[in-house]
Amino acid sequence: LPNHGELVAYISWTMFWHQGVEDGELVRLVTAAMLHDLGACDPLERQKIAEVELVMPLTHSVAGYLLLRDRVPDPKMAHVILYHHSPWAEGTNAIADLPFPREAATVRLADRLAILCHQDGDDFPERVARWQAMSQRESKFDPDQLALLTLLCNETDLLHKLRSGEYLDELNTLLEAVPISEKEAQGYLEALA
What is the reported pTM? Predict the structure, then answer.
């Protein structure tokens, strides 16, 4: 999906910013959101991963976690990637006793909204509203995060920016404003290689 990582990063950034996340952590979390599907990045492996995930869900989440866990400055980044498809379970969901960061619930919501952005049609706001209503009934998402996203969709120009592509300039400005260390950049490049 074109610009999927960027969409997820921007939606996540908007939500994290409204929650008062501090700048240093904000950039690390937005970077994790952008890289959330890193475990499925090899085009030759995508079909295999898709087939495996029908039987064993979360394969690309685990692969992304394994690629980044020793290459990022904050372990929470890798945990966000690990749990970005895990349903909300009052924050108790855990794989192999690794902590479930609440930020993973934000990235999960952002990922779902980004997928809706990729669908064609002029009924985007209506689809988002239907999805939000269904999500509230099913309790698969953190209710506080879902309420925040609903508020942002209804009371800001978030949906317009997502559909028009305007979000890209804001996201690039954010990511350029905070330099990363050479070691951190090397870790990302190694994970992508």
Answer: 0.83
